[in-house]
Every structure is written in C-alpha cells, then in structure tokens.
Design a protein that fits this description.
Blueprint (H helix, E strand, L loop, with lengths): L1 E5 L10 H12 L2 E3 L13 E6 L5 E7 L8 E6 L8 E6 L7 H10 L2 H6 L4 H19 L3 E6 L9 H20 L2 H32 L4 H12 L15 H27 L23 H10 L1
Antiparallel strand pairs: 1-3, 2-3, 4-5, 6-7
C-alpha cells in the first residue's frame, strides 16, 4: 500500500500541532512517512509518501526541483513486478509519408478508369477499383505488422483529453530542448489545462453513473464501493503482528475490556438512590382532558 500526495501539513515543523497529530495517527496504524527533504519552495515537507512499516517497496527516493511548480518532484523506485500487459497484432500503413503527386501519377498510370468502365456490375466495378488502388498503396506504403500492448483507457478518458495530452507532450519536448522561459510557460499552461480537463471528465463520468443508479441502491453501492475497492482481490489488512494467536488474544482482551467497563458503569449507576417523590408544589395540575379540534389534528398531521 502506498499513500502519496500533497497533504498540506508542515510535517517537518515541530510546532505544527496538526502535523504532530497526523504523524501520531499514521504511527498508530503501523505506517511510516518516507520523505525527509523539503518539497515546497518555502522550505517545508508538504508532499508525503506513506507505506506500511514492514513493506520495503519504496527505494531510491529523491526530491528534485522540476521548475514548473512551487512543489518539487519526488522520484522513487517501486520494488514490485509490473504485470505483463496483454498484446495484440496490428497491421498498418505509413500513409503520412506518401507524396500526393506520386500517388496521383501512379493511379493515373494504373488505368483505373478504363478497368472500372470495362466491368458491368457495380460489385465488379468496386472490386476492381479497390484492387487497383490497393496495389498502388502497396508500392508507396506497404502493409506492416507489429505487436503492441493492450492498454485499456479509463471510462472517463475522452478524445478531447487525448488531444490535450498530446499537446502537453509536444510543449514539454519543446521546453526541455530550448529551456526558454516562454516555452516553460506554454508547457505549464498545457499541463494545467490537461489536469483541469481530467478532473472535469471524471466528475462528468461519475455524475452520469450516479444518475443512472437513481432508484437502485444496490447499483449505487457497487459504484461507490468500486471507488475505494477497485479490485475484486481486495483483502482487509490486519495490524502488523508476529504471532497470530497473540493478535487474536489482543482483540479479545480489547473488546472484552470494553464490555466489562460498560457493565461496571451500569452497576455504579444502579446503586444511586432514585428520587421518585413527586414535587411538593407542582406548578400545574391536570384536571380533565379537552377533546381535540379537527383543525388541531390537521396541524399535527402536517407537522408529522
């Protein structure tokens, strides 16, 4: 398990009470915070990497100034095996490199018009046209085959978001090549635009999904559950322990102690002498019941 992000705590400030409480909280559940260097331009540790104490899954952690934000970049290696992605075979042509004049000349030289005119049925005309044009394409852009990994996109990943990410990548390459301030500003603008669009796309997607679950609490529960338990292989994590039997005894002692405390409190309260005597001088007495009016009954029903 890895928790990371901008927690907005000055974790290195001993006088920050909230940061101290947060540190005690993660310590109480056997977690540890790994970032020790400043991650903000003002000199505080705000961005954290949190893991289980006994899990050595993060290594080679370092903090670098990335020049595009008031926060620094945190680089680290994960000691995990990346799952192998499924692959598929695709065929393609490099049509972008085709010269339009050359293509036009080859089509004219192929006598495609005469070949189409010589056929009688529409099916034959279309077939000879496709064969002729395909033969020309084989000369200029032959069919190639390659194996590519299958990377399914998230449900909220739209064509607009894909285009913005391409623009961001182009802006980043240009800035890293020139190192000009104007190119850095263009890159930062493109980066922020992608982040904003990503948030909007996620909100729109889940808003539509929640609306689809209207009147179906079971589907709504499944949707909410998928947000914090994204995989079916989720398993609850027990506290760190070396002896399973001792852990069970600790659980038993904890909850048994709570029951004993409740019983002791009830016993101590029952020993108090109740004061059941009526007040000596009541402020008012009930002499008779007055029948309720129809208007009063209606008002009570409306309030209910």
């Amino acid at each position: 398990m890895i928790l990371m992000g901008d927690f907005n705590f000055h974790i290195d400030d001993a006088s920050d009470k909230k940061a101290e409480e947060f540190s005690k909280l993660i310590e109480s559940v056997n977690l540890t915070q790994l970032v020790n260097n400043s991650t903000h331009m003002n000199g505080h540790i705000l961005d954290l990497i949190i893991t289980h104490k006994k899990e050595q899954i993060v290594s080679s952690l370092k903090v670098d100034d990335c020049d595009i934000s008031d926060h620094s970049c945190i680089h680290f290696d994960l000691n995990l095996q990346k799952p192998k992605a499924e692959k598929k075979k695709v065929t393609y042509r490099k049509t972008r490199k085709i010269n339009s004049d050359t293509l036009r000349k080859l089509i004219v030289d192929s006598n495609v018009t005469e070949k189409v005119s010589s056929k009688e049925t529409v099916h034959e005309k279309v077939e000879i046209f496709n064969e002729t044009v395909e033969a020309v394409l084989d000369l200029l852009a032959p069919v190639k085959t390659k194996i590519v990994p299958i990377r399914p996109n998230s449900h909220w990943y739209t064509d607009e978001l894909r285009t913005l990410k391409q623009e961001r990548r182009c802006a980043e390459r240009k800035w890293r090549k020139s190192r000009l301030e104007i190119h850095r500003q263009i890159y930062v603008y493109a980066k922020n635009k992608v982040n904003d669009m990503l948030v909007k796309s996620k909100k729109k997607y889940f808003k539509e999904r929640i609306f689809e679950c209207k009147g179906n609490s079971n589907e709504l529960y499944k949707l909410v559950k998928s947000l914090y338990k994204p995989t079916s292989s989720y398993k609850p994590v027990l506290p760190s322990h070396d002896d399973t039997e001792q852990l069970c005894n600790n659980f038993s002692s904890f909850f048994g102690g709570k029951i004993d405390n409740i019983r002791n409190q009830l016993d101590s309260e029952s020993t108090l002498t109740p004061n059941n005597e009526p007040p000596s001088n009541p402020s008012s007495t009930l002499q008779e019941f007055r029948p309720a009016l129809v208007e009063e009954s209606g008002n009570y029903n409306l309030r209910a």
